[in-house]
Amino acid sequence: MKRTDNSFRFDDSELIEKFIHATGKGGQNVNKVATCVYLKHIPTGISVKYSGERSQSANRAKAREILKDKIQSYYLGLRQQAKNEMEKEYRRNREKPIVIKRKILEDKHRKASIKMLRKKPSIDQ
User: Is the whole-model pTM more than 0.90?
Assistant: First the structure.
C-alpha cells in the first residue's frame, strides 16, 4: 500500500483476483460467462465480491474502487485509533493542576469522614 497525497493505491502483487459465475437474473450470460469479480487484499485481509454490472471489465473496475475505499477507511481507522491512544496516554500522564489536586484531596477527606461515621462505636468512647 502506497500513499500519495490524499489517495491510496495498491500494487497488483498485493491482490488475489478471481472471476466467478455471478448469481441471480441474467440468463445465459450469467450461466456461461464468469462476470463476478472477487478481490482480496492480502496484507489487510479485506475482500470484495462484485457482480452488479453485466460485463467483467466494469465489475472489475467497480470492485477495485470499492476495495480501495475499504482499505483507505481501514488505514484511516488505524491511524485514528493510534492517535486516540496517544492522546489518552498524554492525558493520563500529564501533571494535574494544583486546583484539581486540592479538590481531589478535599473529596478524599470528606469520604473518609463519612466512613468514620459508619464505624461501630468503640468501648473507649
Answer: no
